[in-house]
Design goal:
Blueprint lengths: L12 H13 L4 E6 L6 H11 L4 E7 L1 H8 L8 H9 L6 E5 L5 H7 L3 E5 L12 H6 L3 E5 L7 H11 L7
Parallel strand pairs: 1-2, 1-4, 2-3, 4-5
């Protein structure tokens, strides 16, 4: 299957920002979630479905390869950004995918201004900092925390693969 099949879902942040006023005029709620999504797994799929249920348009921000390396280390990502973007775009719940270079989505969210910004429940209750909170609240958006799906994580998956082949997983 050619990557062109899902090309309409792959957009620059600037292109999405141009569409945003029309979505607002039509009363469509825009939901944003973001991450590395390296080694796509069922936890990601469930989170996308849960995020989509909160609004009308789900935009997934995908960390670029450079930002994944900055966050996760030099051995990541396992899958390049173009392939990760195409896989995420292929999912029914996802309306658009955009790639961003920063370690956090603050600049992207500032530009798109989604109605709802979704984070994992591991950020709820101040357990982990939410650097984008200030910008989301500044324009009247809201942050929602999605449930975690125990036993489903890319790091755990990489660890199990490494153990199966008798190698030390990357950290």
């Amino acid at each position: 299957m050619s990557s062109l099949v899902h090309a309409p879902k792959l957009r620059t942040l600037e292109a999405l920002a141009e569409l945003r006023p029309a979505w607002a005029r039509a009363g469509r709620r825009v939901v944003w979630t973001n991450g590395c999504f390296d080694l796509l797994h069922v936890g990601h799929i469930r989170s996308f479905q849960e995020a989509k249920a909160l609004g009308d348009i789900l935009v997934v921000g995908l960390n670029s390869d450079a930002s994944v390396r900055a966050i996760k280390g030099p051995l990541r990502p396992v899958v390049c950004q173009e392939d990760r973007a195409e896989m995420v775009a292929a999912l029914e719940a996802v309306d658009f995918v955009t790639i961003f270079d920063e370690s956090d989505p603050v600049a992207a969210i500032s530009k798109l201004r989604p109605d709802i910004h979704c984070k994992g429940a591991d950020y709820a209750g101040g357990r982990r900092p939410v650097p984008e909170r200030e910008v989301v609240e500044s324009y009247g958006g809201e942050i929602r925390f999605l449930p975690l799906h125990e036993g489903r994580s890319t790091s755990g998956l990489i660890g199990r693969i490494a153990a199966a082949y008798g190698v030390e997983p990357c950290r």
